[in-house]
Amino acid sequence: MSHSYGFKQLERDIGVILQETSDHKAIIDKVKPLLEQLLQNKNLIPAPYRTPRPDKYAQYLLYKPDDEAFSVIAFVWGPGQVAPVHDHLVWGLVGLYEGAVVEKRYRREDRGQSAEPRYAIREVGEVTARRGDISYVYPPDHDIHGVSNPFGEPAITLHIYGADIGKQPRHIHDVATGNYRDIITRHDNEAPVYSSHTAASS
Ligand SMILES: [Fe+2]
Questions:
Q1: In this structure, are residues 154 and 97 in contact, taking their beta carbons and an 8 Å threshold?
Q2: What is the pTM of this model?
Q3: Rounded to whole angstroms, what are the CA distances from 66 to 63, 89, 163, 192?
């Protein structure tokens, strides 16, 4: 029996938070210390889910409760792998579990009815996230970013979203034109690594 912070306790704690508030930023502020505890659990991600895919970043669903009020995902980034500029349309936190990634933040600006193109995607910041660092996203104004691993070693990021992000309709944005297209990014594993019906990592 591990005494590390695990998913059953996380489910209880997030349940309390979601009863207290529906404000995205308030939820993020309260979930952040929970993600900090998860990031300290060195045994959280089993070995088969730590290896990069050769073709793209890997997206593994670790845990979600029955009501899908949130989901916990591990992303594994091989050297040089990139996530295009995207939004989430739900609150989320991104913790750095292993290695490092670069996150670029963007804002979508309405240039006015007569402007062509009407919308512009502006880069508003860039940060290199290292072990223990936590970033966050929430709609509508703090929701667009791109993530990459330009380094020589694999990286693992640990994400908590306010929905099953593997089913969440959202968008990939074209920085050059301001246009976007619909996307759903499905998980690379069929079933969660940890079942909500077992005591694993509780
Ligand atoms: Fe993202």
A1: no
A2: 0.94
A3: 10, 21, 11, 11
**13 CA to middle of ligand 1, Å?**
23
In contact, 98 and 106? CB cutoff 8 Å: no
Closest CA to 94 of 195, 140, 86: 86
pLDDT tens digits, one per residue of 25-84: 999 999 999 999 999 999 999 999 999 999 999 999 999 999 999 999 999 999 999 999
State the distance from the centre of ligand 1 to the C-alpha of 2, rounded, in angstroms: 30
Residue 145 Cα to ligand 1 middle (Å): 6
What's the gap in Å between 131 CA and the centre of ligand 1?
17
Ligand 1 centre and the CA of 12: distance in Å? 25
CA distance 118 to 114: 7
Q: Is residue 76 a contact partner of residue 53, using CB atoms and an 8 Å limit?
A: yes
Q: What separation in Å is there between the alpha carbon of 91 and the centre of ligand 1?
A: 10
